Amino acid sequence: MIGAGAAEQGSEAWELAAEVGRLLALAGVTVVCGGGGGVMEAAARGAAGAGGVVLGIVPGHEVGEANPFCSHVVATGIGHARNVAVVSSGEVVIAVGGEWGTLSEIGHARALGRTVVALRSWTLSGRGQMEGAPGVEVVDTADAAVAAALAALPPQ
Fold it and tell me: Which residues are CB-neighbours of 40 under 8 A, at least 6 positions away?
């Protein structure tokens, strides 16, 4: 889960992220996020509330930086470079809303071959082989985001 760190509780992005986290946990999926506030905290809260496991990968040196809903925390000490660790640690990436960091994570995820499900997030265009933003699936609801993410998981 990636998205706007500045999303406020009660905002559309917050509510969508909380529902996505809840639905992922109910599906038995571990949620990986940046461990901070906003969308990350909402997703973690939703997942934890449904009995799920949440891995928070924080930018600083202290595990205490993570929101209280993370089950496990990795303190990277590498600042924004931890965005690569976040998207590398999951098999599919769901972006909810977003800021500049979210855009970088989408780019890293696609460069790594991860499917990105964009829920009210960045819209992308490109030229040549990048036309139509291959590997980025745009959805409008939390249910659709989770369904798309589960469908994109590699066979177990």
Answer: 1, 2, 3, 5, 17, 33, 34, 56, 67
Instruction: Give pLDDT tens digits for 55-107.
Output: 999 999 999 999 999 999 999 999 999 999 999 999 999 999 999 999 999 99
CB 50 within 8 A of CB 25: yes
Indicate the pTM of the whole model. Answer: 0.95
The CA distance from 56 to 115, in Å, is 20
Q: Indicate the residue type of 88.
A: S
Residue 144's contacts (CB-CB under 8 Å, 6 or more residues apart) are 119
Do 95 and 116 contact (CB within 8 A), yes or no?
Answer: yes
Closest Cα partner for 72 from 92, 90, 51, 57?
A: 57
CA separation for the pair 149, 152 (Å, rounded): 5
Give the integer Cα–Cα distance in Å for 156 and 76. Answer: 29
Domains and CATH numbers, the chain: 2-151 (3.40.50.450)
